[in-house]
Design goal:
Layout (H helix, E strand, L loop, with lengths): L13 H13 L4 H23 L1
Helix pairs in contact: 1-2
C-alpha cells in the first residue's frame, strides 16, 4: 500500500527555523523528518493526556 504524502508550506520565524535546522543536524535527521518527529512527539503526548483523563 502506497502512503500518500501531504505537502504544506509553513512560514517560520528565522530563529525557529534555525533551531529546527540545528536540532535536525544534531539528531542526524533531515529538517522535514525533524519536524515530523516533533509533531509525532506532540501527538503522542496529547494522546497520553487524553488517556489519563478517561
Amino acid at each position: 500500500m502506497k502512503k500518500s504524502k501531504f505537502q504544506y508550506i509553513v512560514r517560520l520565524p528565522l530563529d525557529l527555523r534555525e533551531w529546527i535546522i540545528n536540532q535536525a543536524d544534531k539528531d542526524c535527521r533531515s529538517v522535514n523528518m525533524q519536524i515530523v518527529y516533533f509533531l509525532n512527539q506532540i501527538k503522542n503526548n496529547e494522546e497520553k493526556i487524553l488517556e489519563n483523563e478517561n
